[in-house]
Amino acid sequence: MTDTQFDIAVIGGGPGGYVAAIRAAQLGLKPVVIERENLGGICLNWGCIPTKALLRAAELRHSIDEMADFGIMVGEVKVDLAAVVKRSRKVAGRLSMGVKHLLKKNKVTVIAAEAKLGAAKGGLRQINLSNGDMVSAKHVIIATGARARALPNIEADGKTILTYREAMVPETMPESLIIVGSGAIGSEFASFYHDMGVKVTLVEALERILPVEDEDVSAFVQKSFEKRGITIMTGVKLQAVTSDANGVQASIEGHDKSLQASRMILAVGITGNTENLGLETTKIKVDRGHIVTDQWGATGEAGIYAIGDVTGPPWLAHKASHEGIICVERITGQKDVHAIGAGAVPGCTYCRPQVASVGMTEAAAKQAGHDLKIGQFPFAGNGKAIALGDDGGFVKTIFDAKTGELLGAHMVGPEVTELIQGYAIARTLEATEAELMATIFPHPTLSEAMHESVLDAYDRAIHF
Amino acid sequence: MTAAPVTAAAPFPETKSSDKPRVFASPLARRIAADRNIVLDRITGSGPHGRILRRDVESAAIAPIAQTTAAQAETLQAGTIQQGDSYLVANSQMRKAIASRLQDSKQQAPHFYLTVDCVIDNLLEARKALNVKAAEGIKISVNDMIIRAAAMALIAVPEANASWEGENTRLFRHADIAMAVAIDGGLITPIVWAAEQKGLAALSQVTADLAARARDGKLAASEYTGGSFTISNLGMFGVREFAAVINPPHGCILAVGAGEQRPIVIDGNLAVATVMSVTLSADHRAVDGAVGARWLQAFKGFVENPVTMLL
Q1: Is B8 inside any structural domain?
Q2: Interchain pair B27, A431: CB under 8 A
Q3: Which candidate, B280, B309, B311, B277, places its Cα nearest to that of B120?
Q4: Which residues in A258-278 are b (16+ Cβ under 10 Å) and which e?
């Protein structure tokens, strides 16, 4: 290896790490990305992207059931599971190649190895690589991501009890499935497997599914899931889980009957990849599996930063990317760099119906002491949604009554994950209800529901 | 339902172009500013291209009506003064920190106060002589000499270099002296670590650097956290003497008044001398009256015989 000295070393080539490296290169620095597995990280290889490919297949499969409503008659429908999974892998592979190309184009050095922090000498941090080499850099960004969190009483064997990783490459469809955890990952798998003909039971320890979303949204998704035939159990804790060749049995605290299914998916959160990095030789603090940083990604050790899933919540790819950018801009002393504000990270869940939100829920806004103006508009009142044959769901907007600040927006229904950025931009620009009302939303689009929801908050909705 | 009154068609008002440069501010920032009566063109925006955002308005602890506008001046002249006319200024983080620390100090630390007068003619002369000899760029201030004297006194009377910690009393080995620096919107106390080990030339460089960076807001947290003793000097404002609130966790704070010519009595004769009154506020939990008195005696000794503190 010729080059061993860099301005910035990024450990981990996921959406946090590779974006940070490209931004560093744009700013004239010499960055290196050290990745032990696949460029693009979990998001691109085992998370966001391949699951979207699977969900698209499920959505198409579901739409065939509705074809008759549109006057289209379809013959016998068959799903080739192997081909569905193969396409999902191909999509992931294509994007990983894309990241490789982007890094090359930006002249970012990529090293395929595991990295371990070494000594700091003369303003440079040494990094020992698993291939025996050593590199050094002025600044180090830890972007090693996270993996599925295990439950103390349940061990994922990868065959009967799965994590997201095995769940997205099934060789056969189980007859029945228990999904533990109803956050974005659990709800997406519930939606996918149900559409693929599996009997799904979704188990949540908290009182409602999608617990970080607004209560109205949780209630709507639960109703919609149950109408489709997904069994939902909330406020339940699994006691003991056993598995054998026939499947999995789970007993529930306070219940006599145990749950039985062919397989189980664990989707109970994540834990940061903080091991084998040499953190113990530094002043870096790890709290409940995640590295502690300030709002700029600085850790307790000078010159070492951490971004993305290995740090605090929310654990989302777009947050990791944004953190990577502000961390590098902060290191290089750029002007007008601002830490991520509270509630600025939108969240999307791609189950059917889709869920998207930004900012505070109604409960959180009330707790924060705001006087609220709340608007809600159903897609049943939206022409485009009715024409699409997909008019379930609503848009809810929450304003501060005094200042007109858009405190939060919550959407459930058709393509809302593509719509939420409208409200995210409004929040970044600090628009009030007046600017949102004064904006012309094109007709006929789903986005008109966003306009109407704002109008409704001030009792001015036209179509409801 | 009654119909809304429909007024007769009136020509649209003409839009007037203003000569004033456009202020770039977010709608939310404008609304909050209007609500709090804050004038936007006095605020520096922190957003892209200097755009004023909500955080800028909220942190603008500027006095919105501090300078009366022409319109307000007119109303005042017309004699229509509103009773209780006032406005709110959002408290900055620094303001809140000062409030909570000093409130804790006054409520928890039993303060007592000791005042002595120091004749500083010798000190002023020594300073003049030192500055003549000093290297280019070095200018020793009276304050530097006070810090030096306080540091020497803390080493001479180590019991006064103490901090109350409940189960224990912490005794400091060095004179880590915090100096109060007034800055925009409050004050900050950067620390001269082990001040007893610094000669006056070195001391003056350290204090000048700390004060300058304090005013620019460029101090690292480690530079104003900790320390064992505080000095607050209001002499430059002509304050004769005052009693300062102890800066926790320190055990003592020395309030320094102005050096001024006063009549004094020497051997039954009236004379004129330059006198500086200083008041020591001490936390009685950690420092007793006699200890404070001995410390002041030592301090006065160094100040009045500056040769002894140069050793």
Answers
A1: no
A2: yes
A3: B277
A4: ebebbbbbbbbbbbbbbeebe
Question: Could B27 and A434 be called an inter-chain contact, meaning their C-beta atoms sit closer than 8 Å?
Answer: yes
Model pLDDT for residues A45-74, shown as the tens digit of each residue: 999 999 999 999 999 999 999 999 999 999
List phi, psi (to 5°) of A179: -110, 125
Does residue A276 surpass a pLDDT of 80?
Answer: yes
B297, part of any domain: yes
The active-site residue, picked from B111, B174, B250, B284, is B284
Residue A51 to residues A47, A162, A189, A195, A360, Cα–Cα distance (Å):
6, 15, 8, 14, 27
Element (H, E) at A19: helix A17-26
Are A141 and A17 in contact by the 8 Å Cβ rule? The answer is: yes
The DSSP bridge pattern shows strands B229-233 and B191-192 to be unpaired
Same domain, B67 and B164: no
Q: Name the closest residue on chain A to residue B35, using Cα atoms.
A: A403
Q: How many domains does chain B have?
A: 2
Distance between A14 CA and the closest CA of chain B, angstroms: 28
Domain final residue pick, B37, B69, B90: B90
Residues in chain B whose Cβ is within 8 Å of chain A: 26-29, 31-32, 35, 46-48, 53-54
Q: Which fold has domain A161-268?
A: FAD/NAD(P)-binding domain (3.50.50)
Separation CA A13–CA A37 (nearest Å): 9
Residue type, A61: R
Share of chain A above pLDDT 70, in %: 100
- Residue B15 forms part of a structural domain: no
DSSP B99-125: HHHHHHHHHHS-EEEEEEEEE-HHHHH
Q: Give the pTM.
A: 0.67
> Which distant-in-sequence residues (6+ apart) come within 8 Å of A389 by Cβ?
A66, A69, A70
The percentage of residues in chain B with a pLDDT greater than 90, rounded to a whole number, is 58
Smallest CA–CA distance, residue B277 to chain A, in Å, is 45
- B46 neighbourhood in chain A, CB within 8 Å: 336, 338
pLDDT tens, residue order, chain B (311 aa): 456 566 566 666 555 555 567 788 999 999 988 888 788 877 888 888 888 998 888 887 544 444 445 555 555 455 556 667 777 788 888 888 899 999 999 999 999 999 999 999 999 999 999 998 888 888 999 999 999 999 999 999 999 999 999 999 999 999 999 999 998 888 899 999 999 999 999 999 999 999 999 988 888 888 998 899 999 999 999 999 999 999 999 999 999 999 999 999 988 999 999 999 999 999 999 999 999 999 999 999 999 999 998 87
The pLDDT tens digits of the residues spanning A298-349 come to: 999 999 999 999 999 999 999 999 999 999 999 999 988 889 988 999 999 9
Closest C-alpha to B181, from B298, B281, B73, B98: B98
Q: Are residues B109 and B217 in the same domain?
A: yes
Q: Angle of helix B142-156 relative to helix B289-304, nearest 10 degrees?
A: 130
Subunit contact B35:A429, Cβ cutoff 8 A: no
A403-448 pLDDT tens trace = 999 999 999 999 999 999 999 999 999 999 999 999 999 999 999 9
Tell me how far CA of residue B82 lies from CA of A403, B2, B33, B72, in angstroms.
26, 39, 21, 11
Which among B35, B46, B53 has CB closest to A430?
Answer: B53
Alpha-carbon distance B49 to nearest alpha carbon in chain A (angstroms): 8
Domain extent at residue B211: 94-309
> Which pLDDT score is estimated for B22?
79
Looking at domain A353-457, its CATH class is alpha beta
Q: DSSP secondary structure string, B163-195?
A: EEETTEEEE-SS--EEE-EEETTEEE--EETTG
- Does residue A372 contact residue A359 with C-beta atoms inside 8 Å? no
Is there a contact between A435 and B27 if contact means CB atoms under 8 Å apart?
A: yes
Domain with CATH 3.30.390.30 in chain A: 353-457
Known catalytic membership, residue B284: yes
